Amino acid sequence: MNRKQQEDLSSFRCIRCGACCKWEGPVRVSDREIDAIADFLGIDLQSFIREYTRLTPDRRSLSLLEKEDGSCLYYDDAEKACRINPVKPEQCRDFPLRWNFPSWRRFCAGAAAMEKGKDS
User: Fold this and answer.
1) For 47-99, what is each residue's pLDDT tens digit?
2) Max CA distance (Å), the chain
3) CA dihedral 90, 100, 8, 103 (to 10 degrees)
């Protein structure tokens, strides 16, 4: 059993701090997700793929583009919100329950709130 399987995250609640959206690395998108995002944004599918995605380093899928600082292109820092929230990729919806990054607890305010709740 790996660490993620052992870890009880049932009390985790996202408080929209944006830490996961600011972490560098690919946000892999499936064909279905690409269709949904392009449609949501009102962008022609081929234009969306060409202008707003890139091939992942392992060359196995497409990823959403990142801003210069590595954060997601669709994360609005001022609003603390995902601009494509209704159609955001599964990878985003699954954080941190099915995936997370090294030391995610140090950056995620939701993790801090979860730990605080355990201490109560």
Assistant:
1) 999 999 999 999 999 999 999 999 999 999 899 899 999 999 999 998 888 88
2) 51
3) -160
